[in-house]
Amino acid sequence: MSNKDYILEAFVKLGQFISQFSSEGITKNETIPHNDLFFDGFKHQIKLANEYNGWFTQKNIQFALYGWSKQLSEDNLNLWTKDYNFSDVQPKTVAIIMAGNIPLVGFHDFLSVLITGHNVLVKQSSNDKHLLPFLAKYLETVAPKLKGSIRFTEDKLENYDAVIATGSNNTARYFDYYFKDKPSIIRKNRNSAAILTGHESSEQLDLLSEDIFRYYGLGCRNVSKLFVPKNYNFDAFFEAMYKWNPIINEAKYANNYDYNKAVYLMSEFDMLENGFLMIKEDQSYASPIATIFYEFYDSTEALQQKIKTDKDLIQCIVASGFDDNEIPFGKTQKPELSDYADDVDTITFLLKI
Q: What pLDDT, on the 0 to 100 scale, is given for residue 150?
């Protein structure tokens, strides 16, 4: 068995393990290897992650785990890796500086480094530090050859050959300078937008609500901006959003809603709201929690040009029939393994270092 196939098999087993913690509920499967060692421990890590970071509700953690359990199938991993040549890899140490905005947000980079045969040195966000180290221990148990290939640190990064770093626009400037002598992928702030025509079905708008509210809108793939035609009627949009109204009963979300609403009212900004979501006309892509920005467009052609101009600010576009790179409604938080952040092919980068 090749090294790649050995690691791929380990991740398939990891996918089977985390499938027990899906969004449909936590159910122990007695056939999963090493469950006596890991099942109860991971339940505890989920609890700790939620206690430490109130945005990481059990529901959102299990949603993330469910997504990864589906992607870590043998078929999906083989389909993803089949067109790359892994034969000439000289193992290096790749440092990953992870964001902490949604659960396991750095997992794709972690998977990519290991499956290309490199060693990984992980510096986690303090907001998301409970889940991945435990899953790494499971990987090392089902694939003992990985012991020594995975390290976590809270200290200054040392002894690494390349880096993948994700942060804000401010930290990205620091990263660009600090890692200028290393092969690197540096990711900055991006947001996602939806393009509406006014002819969307109620089902499409219902699916769009998932793109907006999942993870409280904290992910770069969450829709934070709408492009709408002149004289767009928001009634159908608000109607489709209404099923998410219980979100206002969650303290952290409610506090942000109240604060941002007060700011808008005191500033006398025009905005529409329904008791748990505000929409405001604004040219920015990055809207605060509990707020969606919108902008009018005159023509599809002009909007396509604007999207092209702003491409470095945009993670993904949700639309129907807008362009070849669009994402269907309801799919932003269900990415495939080949949906690379910022459209930078991580595997190609890792195979060249």
A: 98
